[in-house]
Amino acid sequence: MRRFRALRLASVAIMASLAVTGCSSWGGKTETVEDQMKQREYKFGSLLGTEGGFNLFGKNKRGGADQGDPNGIGVNSFLWRASLDTLSFMPIVSADPFGGVILTDWYSPPDAPNERFKVNLYIMDRQLRADGVRVAVFKQQRNGNDWRDTNVGSDTAGTLEDAVLTRARQLRVAQASASR
Question: Helix H segments across 27-105?
Fold first, then answer.
């Protein structure tokens, strides 16, 4: 019983010290939510800590007009909005703006109820680039009561990628002309 009390007392002391340590506003300035977001935005930077040093986690995420939303979106904001606009006719199952992944559910076109399509769209970069979007399209056809996988035309994914890139460029031009 004495051991249990000592263990309980030690755990209460540890919890209290963690609670006190977590209070960052003691003796310092109070940070706004915006300040905290800016600090978290560049959590993974250069391995050597220098501006042009070796970057452990890919491209440098600082600066530039096409770097995406500074409020924490993980991919290029033009590509993200263009992807959502382009796939708006399909039911979206999952949309992750930090990872740049959009997954749709099966969609049957009104003029072809015996076939359905599904799209997985990946935004690969924080910059608006021609290779910044990858699309995987899946197609199934109804055979009785079963759905069977079939081949999708070789240009279908490329056509969707081009549509997203065209829309992203339109959004960028519209934003640039609005800010003048």
Answer: 33-41, 77-86
- How far apart are alpha carbons 20 and 16 in whole angstroms? 6
pTM: 0.60
Q: Say how far apart CA 58 and CA 75 lie, in whole Å.
A: 13
If 0-12 CB within 10 Å is exposed, 13-18 middle and 19+ buried, where does residue 33 land? exposed
> Burial letters for 143-177: b for 16+ Cβ neighbours within 10 Å, e otherwise?
eeeeeeeeeeeeeebeebbebbbebbeebbeeeee
Residue written as tokens 């096409």?
66
Q: pLDDT by residue for the chain (180 residues), tens digit each? A: 666 566 666 666 666 555 555 554 444 444 544 454 444 444 444 444 444 444 444 444 444 444 444 556 688 999 999 999 999 999 999 999 999 999 999 999 999 999 999 999 999 988 999 899 999 999 999 999 999 999 998 899 999 999 999 999 999 999 999 887
**Cβ atoms 102, 95 nearer than 8 A:** yes
